[in-house]
Amino acid sequence: MNDSKIWAALEPMFPSALEEIPLDGNWLKPPYADDPEGRAIICNDGDFQYVVVDRKSSSVLYVCEDDESVIASSLEMFVSIVAAWRTIDNDTAGPVDDEDFSEVKKSFESQLRAIDPAAAGPNEFWSLYTEELTSEDYVEVEDSDEDDDEDLFVETEEIRADA
Protein backbone atom coordinates (compact mmCIF):
# COMPACT_ATOMS: atom_id res chain seq x y z
CA MET A 1 0.00 0.00 0.00
CA ASN A 2 1.52 3.28 -1.05
CA ASP A 3 1.41 6.63 0.74
CA SER A 4 -1.30 8.08 -1.50
CA LYS A 5 -3.71 5.24 -0.66
CA ILE A 6 -2.99 5.61 3.05
CA TRP A 7 -3.47 9.38 2.89
CA ALA A 8 -6.72 9.00 0.93
CA ALA A 9 -8.16 7.14 3.95
CA LEU A 10 -6.64 9.42 6.61
CA GLU A 11 -7.05 12.86 5.03
CA PRO A 12 -10.80 13.25 5.72
CA MET A 13 -10.07 12.60 9.41
CA PHE A 14 -6.99 14.82 9.59
CA PRO A 15 -6.36 16.26 12.09
CA SER A 16 -9.43 16.64 14.32
CA ALA A 17 -10.86 13.11 14.26
CA LEU A 18 -7.43 11.51 14.57
CA GLU A 19 -6.50 13.74 17.50
CA GLU A 20 -9.46 12.35 19.46
CA ILE A 21 -7.95 8.88 19.40
CA PRO A 22 -6.40 8.21 22.82
CA LEU A 23 -2.77 8.26 21.73
CA ASP A 24 0.17 10.48 22.48
CA GLY A 25 1.95 11.74 19.42
CA ASN A 26 1.56 13.63 16.20
CA TRP A 27 -0.44 12.39 13.25
CA LEU A 28 1.71 12.66 10.17
CA LYS A 29 1.17 13.55 6.53
CA PRO A 30 2.90 11.80 3.63
CA PRO A 31 5.52 10.96 2.69
CA TYR A 32 5.54 8.38 5.48
CA ALA A 33 8.77 7.02 6.89
CA ASP A 34 8.95 3.27 7.31
CA ASP A 35 9.64 1.47 10.57
CA PRO A 36 12.23 -1.36 10.58
CA GLU A 37 9.57 -3.79 9.27
CA GLY A 38 8.73 -1.56 6.28
CA ARG A 39 5.39 -0.32 7.65
CA ALA A 40 4.30 3.29 7.18
CA ILE A 41 4.54 5.38 10.37
CA ILE A 42 1.37 7.51 10.52
CA CYS A 43 1.59 8.74 14.12
CA ASN A 44 4.70 9.20 16.22
CA ASP A 45 5.29 10.46 19.74
CA GLY A 46 8.93 11.19 18.97
CA ASP A 47 10.07 8.70 21.57
CA PHE A 48 9.26 5.00 21.61
CA GLN A 49 5.62 4.60 20.54
CA TYR A 50 4.01 5.02 17.17
CA VAL A 51 1.20 3.86 14.90
CA VAL A 52 1.88 2.09 11.61
CA VAL A 53 -0.01 0.89 8.58
CA ASP A 54 1.24 -2.44 7.31
CA ARG A 55 1.80 -1.78 3.61
CA LYS A 56 1.00 -5.41 2.70
CA SER A 57 -2.11 -6.14 4.80
CA SER A 58 -3.27 -2.53 5.50
CA SER A 59 -3.65 -3.35 9.21
CA VAL A 60 -3.18 -0.48 11.65
CA LEU A 61 -0.97 -1.32 14.62
CA TYR A 62 0.10 0.43 17.80
CA VAL A 63 3.80 -0.14 18.49
CA CYS A 64 5.33 0.60 21.89
CA GLU A 65 8.93 -0.53 22.20
CA ASP A 66 8.77 -4.30 21.57
CA ASP A 67 4.99 -4.65 21.99
CA GLU A 68 2.41 -4.38 19.24
CA SER A 69 -1.36 -4.39 19.36
CA VAL A 70 -4.05 -4.15 16.71
CA ILE A 71 -5.89 -0.86 16.38
CA ALA A 72 -7.69 -2.06 13.24
CA SER A 73 -7.42 -5.06 10.93
CA SER A 74 -7.42 -2.76 7.91
CA LEU A 75 -7.25 0.91 7.09
CA GLU A 76 -10.91 0.82 6.03
CA MET A 77 -11.93 -0.62 9.40
CA PHE A 78 -9.76 2.00 11.10
CA VAL A 79 -11.88 4.73 9.50
CA SER A 80 -15.05 3.07 10.86
CA ILE A 81 -13.55 2.59 14.32
CA VAL A 82 -12.46 6.23 14.49
CA ALA A 83 -16.01 7.26 13.55
CA ALA A 84 -17.45 5.06 16.32
CA TRP A 85 -14.95 6.37 18.87
CA ARG A 86 -15.59 9.94 17.81
CA THR A 87 -19.34 9.52 18.19
CA ILE A 88 -18.93 8.28 21.74
CA ASP A 89 -16.22 10.82 22.53
CA ASN A 90 -18.26 13.75 21.20
CA ASP A 91 -21.71 12.62 22.33
CA THR A 92 -20.67 11.79 25.86
CA ALA A 93 -20.88 14.82 28.07
CA GLY A 94 -19.11 12.90 30.76
CA PRO A 95 -21.15 10.44 32.76
CA VAL A 96 -21.23 11.41 36.39
CA ASP A 97 -20.29 8.05 37.81
CA ASP A 98 -18.44 4.94 36.75
CA GLU A 99 -21.67 2.94 36.45
CA ASP A 100 -22.96 5.33 33.77
CA PHE A 101 -19.56 5.37 32.12
CA SER A 102 -19.50 1.59 32.06
CA GLU A 103 -22.50 1.74 29.73
CA VAL A 104 -20.61 4.09 27.41
CA LYS A 105 -17.64 1.71 27.33
CA LYS A 106 -19.93 -1.26 26.67
CA SER A 107 -21.54 0.60 23.78
CA PHE A 108 -18.17 1.31 22.16
CA GLU A 109 -16.94 -2.23 22.76
CA SER A 110 -20.11 -3.59 21.14
CA GLN A 111 -19.64 -1.35 18.11
CA LEU A 112 -15.98 -2.33 17.91
CA ARG A 113 -16.82 -6.06 17.92
CA ALA A 114 -19.28 -5.49 15.08
CA ILE A 115 -16.81 -3.43 13.04
CA ASP A 116 -13.60 -5.36 13.62
CA PRO A 117 -13.60 -8.42 15.92
CA ALA A 118 -9.80 -8.72 15.78
CA ALA A 119 -9.37 -5.15 17.07
CA ALA A 120 -11.76 -5.96 19.93
CA GLY A 121 -9.55 -8.79 21.19
CA PRO A 122 -8.63 -8.89 24.88
CA ASN A 123 -4.99 -7.83 24.49
CA GLU A 124 -5.41 -5.38 21.65
CA PHE A 125 -5.16 -1.59 21.77
CA TRP A 126 -8.82 -0.72 22.36
CA SER A 127 -9.48 -3.27 25.10
CA LEU A 128 -6.31 -2.29 26.93
CA TYR A 129 -7.29 1.37 26.69
CA THR A 130 -10.98 1.06 27.59
CA GLU A 131 -10.37 -1.16 30.62
CA GLU A 132 -8.41 1.71 32.19
CA LEU A 133 -11.04 4.37 31.51
CA THR A 134 -13.22 5.82 34.22
CA SER A 135 -15.69 8.66 34.22
CA GLU A 136 -12.94 10.94 35.53
CA ASP A 137 -11.27 10.72 32.12
CA TYR A 138 -14.25 12.49 30.59
CA VAL A 139 -15.27 14.95 33.26
CA GLU A 140 -13.46 18.18 32.56
CA VAL A 141 -12.49 20.05 35.66
CA GLU A 142 -11.91 23.72 35.03
CA ASP A 143 -9.47 25.53 37.26
CA SER A 144 -10.85 28.77 38.52
CA ASP A 145 -8.92 32.01 38.15
CA GLU A 146 -8.62 32.08 41.94
CA ASP A 147 -6.69 28.79 41.88
CA ASP A 148 -4.35 30.19 39.23
CA ASP A 149 -3.82 33.38 41.25
CA GLU A 150 -3.19 31.34 44.40
CA ASP A 151 -0.58 29.20 42.61
CA LEU A 152 1.13 32.34 41.29
CA PHE A 153 1.15 33.82 44.81
CA VAL A 154 2.75 30.68 46.26
CA GLU A 155 5.38 30.61 43.50
CA THR A 156 6.15 34.31 44.01
CA GLU A 157 6.52 33.82 47.77
CA GLU A 158 8.85 30.83 47.19
CA ILE A 159 11.02 32.89 44.84
CA ARG A 160 11.22 35.74 47.36
CA ALA A 161 12.17 33.31 50.11
CA ASP A 162 15.00 31.93 47.96
CA ALA A 163 16.37 35.40 47.17
Output the keywords.
single chain; 163 residues; alpha+beta; five-stranded antiparallel β-sheet; 14% strand; globular
Overview of the molecule:
- The protein has 163 residues and is α+β, with helices and mostly antiparallel strands.
- It has one domain.
- Helix content is 44%, strand content 14%.
- The chain is built from six helices and five strands; from the N terminus they run H-H-E-E-E-E-E-H-H-H-H.
- The protein has a five-stranded antiparallel beta sheet with strand order 1-2-3-4-5.
- Strand 2 and strand 3 form a beta hairpin.
- Helix 3 runs antiparallel to helix 4.
SSE blueprint and pairings:
Blueprint: H1 3-10, H2 16-19, E1 26-27, E2 40-44, E3 49-53, E4 60-64, E5 67-72, H3 75-91, H4 98-115, H5 125-130, H6 145-162
Antiparallel strand pairs: 1-2, 2-3, 3-4, 4-5
Helix pairs in contact: 3-4
Number of strands: 5
**Overall pLDDT score:** 82
Which structural category do the helix and sheet elements fall into? alpha+beta
Give the biggest sheet. Answer: 5 strands, antiparallel
Q: How much β-strand is present in the residues?
A: 5-15%
- Tell me the series of helices and strands, N- to C-terminal: HHEEEEEHHHH
Q: Report the C-alpha radius of gyration, rounded.
A: 20 Å
Q: Approximately how much helix is present in the residues?
A: 40-55%
- Lateral strand order in the biggest sheet: 1-2-3-4-5
Shape descriptor reads globular
Q: Please mark out the parts with pLDDT under 50 across 5 or more consecutive residues, or reply none.
A: 138-146, 148-157
Number of structurally distinct domains: 1
How far the N terminus sits from the C terminus, by CA atoms, comes to 61 Å
